[in-house]
Amino acid sequence: MISQALLKEFKEKAGQENVFTEKADLVTYSYDAAVLEPVLPGVAIRPASGEALSQIVRLCNENKIPLTVRGAGTNLSGGTIPLRDGVVVLTNALTKILEINEADMYAVVQPGVVTAKLAAAVAAKGLFYPPDPGSQAVSTLGGNVAENAGGLRGLKYGVTRDYVMGIQFFDVNGEIVKTGSRTVKCATGYNLTGLLVGSEGTLGVFNEITLKLIPLPAHQKAMVAVFDNIDKASETVAAIIAHRIVPATLEFMDNFTIRAVEDYSHVGLPTDAAALLLIEVDGYPAQVEEDAEKVELLCRQKGATSIRVAEDAAERDSVWTARRSALSALAKLKPTVVLEDATVPRSRIPDMVRAMQDIAKEYNISIGTFGHAGDGNLHPTILTDRRDKAEWARVEAAIAAIFDKALSMGGTLSGEHGTGLAKSCFLEKETSAATIIYSRKIKTALDPNYILNPGKIIGR
Question: Coil, strand, or helix at residue 368?
Answer without folding.
Answer: strand
